[in-house]
Amino acid sequence: MNGIKIKKCKWLKKISNPTQQSHLLSKLQLWLFNYFIIPIKQAFFYVTDSSNYRNRVFYYRKSLWQKIFYKAFKAFKEKSSLKLIPESEVKLLLKYEKSLGIAHLRFLPKTSSCRPIVNMGKNLLFPGITKKIPINKQLLNLLNVLSPDKLKNSDNLGSTVFGTDDVYLKLKHFIQQRKDNQDNRELYFVKTDISNCYDTIKPEKLHDIIKDILQQNPDEYITRRYFTVMSVGGKLRGTINRDSRSLMDYNPDFFSFIKDKIQDGDLRDLLLVDKVISEHDSTDNLLELLRALLYNNIIKVGRLYYKQELGISQGSVLSTLLCNYYYGRMEGESMTVLQDELMMRMVDDFIFISPYKHRAVEFLTNMWSGNVEYNCSVNAEKIVTNFTCQLENRDIQHHINQEFAWCGYIINTSTLNISVDYDRYIGLAISDTMTFETGQNPGQAMKNKLMLSIRPKCNCLFLDPKVSD
User: Fold this and answer.
1) What are the two backbone dihedrals, phi and then psi, of residue 391, each rounded to the nearest 5 degrees?
2) C-alpha distance across the termini of the chain, in Å
3) pLDDT per position as a tens digit, 52-83
4) 430-459 pLDDT, tens digit each
5) What is the dihedral of CA 439, 443, 447, 453, to 10 degrees?
6) Distance separating alpha carbons of residues 212 and 209, to the nearest angstrom
7) 162 vs 180: CA distance, rounded Å
8) How many CB atoms lie within 10 A of CB 9?
9) pTM higher than 0.85 for the full model?
10) Is 347 in contact with 323 (CB distance < 8 Å)?
11) C-alpha separations of 289 from 71, 117, 295, 443 in Å
């Protein structure tokens, strides 16, 4: 409505009330966009975001997108071993609850390929089946039970780091240890990337790993649901939370539960409301959910139905955690890290730091050789070292300077100072990194988003003088 002069609209002159004039004009604008402009765009273009350009919107002519989709689906079908199944089999799997539901497949365009995204947040309906609970919602209790703070056994996750806080703790310990030992030896860095880490996971192997992890813990769990209400941008926002505990650790008294959470430092500036709803799960029930996800993951493409026989879908709320447990077990069986070395892995991105060149070469050789048991291989194009090296007569990419990039961070190979990798924003317009809200207070919403974007840069990882001088 900005810039539109109501007085210029002759058809509104018969209405004397200015408020009513503005209301009618806004309704016309809404109609034009919702029932005319947007449908025309949807009729001729496939509109999407992308992996490389953040929030920029791309328009593909439908004839071109069909060719891109067919090529991307053919590659995904081969990697994930998708098996075409008839509707009768789909109906039986859903009827007897052997499958959690039907997911929709879409592709996110990248520079030279497409990333498959299986949408499990919305369950597609099937004729004759009334179940409407989204797949991801069915997996929330299992997600809570498998969360690292509930299992209290970090060995299952290997060198996994979940974010900046984990990187800070591991790097701080490594630096402090070197200072305590007055260790000034040169460090050798290796960075590797697992090729198609989600699509190559063996479902049988993953099932055995999670089954083993669950059986190490009590076989009865209770999940408490409660509301948290907080002030965001001057408005109250409520969210539903879940907390899963073993039967022995479960505290039925909500006030005692909240006191424990406050002492752990998890809660502040919140209003909490008990939903008085608790769900009971056994290990067998949780494993049934896992089996349905791994073995009977149904994906709809067009009018056809496929069952995924290899890998796990990235659209699941469990996918990242399952991936970390899978490769964490692989690390425990095939890799060793000495006390004066550091290894970190963020999902599929490894970094290995050692004062011994032969150990760095050994790690690189092992990753290059792959792991047949776990169907793991590395992406040769993404291997980077800070020293010259050859594998099978092939020169490995190495950094000449002391700035070593890994997962959005820049690590100085000499001082171990760490900073944000701003090179990732090269070639991006600032407008592509932002989104805008058209509510009553767009300026306040923009301010809140800017503050949220600054918060990760204020982490101890970048401010602690013991880590970054």
Assistant:
1) -130, 120
2) 52
3) 888 889 999 999 999 999 999 998 888 878 99
4) 788 777 776 677 787 788 788 878 888 888
5) 60
6) 5
7) 27
8) 14
9) yes
10) yes
11) 32, 21, 10, 44
